[in-house]
């Protein structure tokens, strides 16, 4: 008896155990825990090994070096920086330079991309073909070549420093860059900025009001023109009321080159143009396919309702196309940002170029590669979050 | 550039994944059958592929000297072209066994970067090159100039110091690749190009119109150029160092690649000791090599003077005088400890 009971007990536990193994839920959890444990183990081993190897190789480590004196100069900086500044500040200069070229590049690439994308669908054969040639040309060469093409082109074609081209408003262009007068702000300039902000806020309110009125009464309102008048007009009025408190520092010829004024160097210009033109070719294709994807019936229905073709594009086609366009657009924006790390080729001081210099001077490879990862990741994630927000706003809202 | 990010990442990954580059470099080198040297991508006279694709130059010959000492065969040297910026991660990660790449010996490279320096195969200093048409006679007239410079060098640091201490303004235009920096200077993007004087003479040869450019008289820094190895491998460090000392001692003793066979039997005791023909000598084996190590270097590569004359000397396109690099007995700084 006792033997039998014992027997049935073991078979019972065995059954329970085997059912545990076969239970997909339990198994799922088991594999997840296992994967996580292996991952943790992997990361831990790599970290330990790195620390060990660094110690063995007598390479100093840690992030303390960021407080040290950089000792090198940087050609392009949006903030005050000298060779006496810290490595940390040098890094900041690089981050700002990367952001500058990425943001301006994204804006320009979007504008060119939308124009070319729409042009590809034009009824006009020449325009459509030109747009196609543009796309095929820029889409099929590596971005590095596009950058070098612009850079070598810019410094080879533009005149030498002593034979600068004179442009309007006492601006000059030569192979050292574009020299423009630099505004020097006098007292009360903040009022102009405030007027500008008021203009923007007022425009938002006007737009809301106009939309509501149109929905209720059907009467359209020239929001765009009113907005422009507010945003540009208000600051100009303030400027005049204050008695024009802005003076200019004009570029003048020096021993080697023009001095004074503000300068946009050929390094920045060529990187910015290259990234914009390159990415625009991809954006154009996205825009084209987005527009193509809106069913024909939509246009026909709008026609039947008596909308003009301009209004059809603006109110019916584009809003629907945007929903298709935005998600792939995000990856193009991310690509542009990442491609900006090719800046070293043309001597632009982006985060990657400056980080590389620091890496060489301090030997802190692990730390700096980690910083690269964190910085690029943050920029990319911020872009993605913004685009997701924008996408959600553009998505079909059911009324 | 992608390559740099890659090599930096590989460097970092190598530090993370692999066990540290082995402390026994000599064993690794012997197992591989070649010694891998990091060199400049193209500095005539220092390391530059000739029209047949053969590497030539004083740094290249240093590497061949190491191969001759280790294998008795100077062709067992492999060259990896590295930009100024890539060279240190490449050495740290073990991609190369030694840097023979016009690298300045500085305290931070010797300590915090984890390298060891001992010999100087070329005493140099930093200078400036300008277009003659600018009518500049001295570096002190350069305020306001645009200066092309290569990143990851002592050059860019000296430049900042020099202009700062002389209260001069300048606009740095910084490149990662020497070729890009040279082209930018050559096409008028910069008024001045700065690097080691030897580099200036080398780079001038690559310009469209070399004669329209002149090197300014100022030498603004000390640039002792020599090989670097990783810390923690004294044996390998000794071998790399004594290759240079053997070449310098050979020149001092009048041993050349032509007469070395003769000298080996007929030379005085110091010559015989060095060339390994002294009865019962253990000098070579104590170094971890064979007793004919120095004989092989001189026979197969040459003494220091021969290498200098062949690569950068007055009869080469670079036309560099021995100057600081003459033997100490002739008023220069090349001085090697005795082999005994
Ligand atoms: N001696 C300096 C500068 C060495 C250096 O990298 N010089 C440049 C300019 S002459 C060079 O060799 N470039 C060649 C290359 O990057 O391939 C140092 O060690 O930092």
UniProtKB/TrEMBL annotation, chain A:
The ABC transmembrane type-1 domain sits at 95-387
Q: Where is it located?
A: Cell inner membrane; Cell membrane
Sorted alphabetically, the Gene Ontology BP terms of this entry are: amino acid transport
GO MF entry, a single one: transmembrane transporter activity
| GO cellular component terms, A-Z | ATP-binding cassette (ABC) transporter complex
Q: Where are the transmembrane segments?
A: 29-47, 59-81, 101-121, 141-161, 188-210, 222-248, 268-287, 368-390
According to its record, how does it sit in the membrane?
Multi-pass membrane protein
**Pfam families from the xrefs?**
BPD_transp_1
Which keywords has UniProt assigned to this entry? Amino-acid transport, Cell membrane, Membrane, Transmembrane, Transmembrane helix, Transport
Family label? Belongs to the binding-protein-dependent transport system permease family. HisMQ subfamily.
Entries under PANTHER family matching the protein: AMINO-ACID ABC TRANSPORTER PERMEASE PROTEIN YHDX-RELATED, MEMBRANE COMPONENT OF AMINO ACID ABC TRANSPORTER
UniProt name for this protein: General L-amino acid transport system permease protein
Q: Which organism is it from?
A: Rhizobium wenxiniae
The lineage, from the top, is: Bacteria, Pseudomonadati, Pseudomonadota, Alphaproteobacteria, Hyphomicrobiales
Automatic annotation (TrEMBL), chain B:
UniProt entry tagged with the keyword Transport = yes
> Which region is the signal sequence?
1-23
Annotated ranges, domain Solute-binding protein family 3/N-terminal: 34-263
- Superkingdom of source: Bacteria
GO BP annotations, alphabetical order = amino acid transport
Please provide the record's keywords in A-Z order: Signal, Transport
CDD domains per UniProt: PBP2_BztA
Q: Does the keyword Mitochondrion apply?
A: no
**InterPro entries per UniProt:** Bact_solute-bind_prot3, Solute-binding_3/MltF_N
Transmembrane segments annotated in the record for this chain: none
* Family stated for the protein in its record: Belongs to the bacterial solute-binding protein 3 family.
The protein here is known as General L-amino acid transport system substrate-binding protein
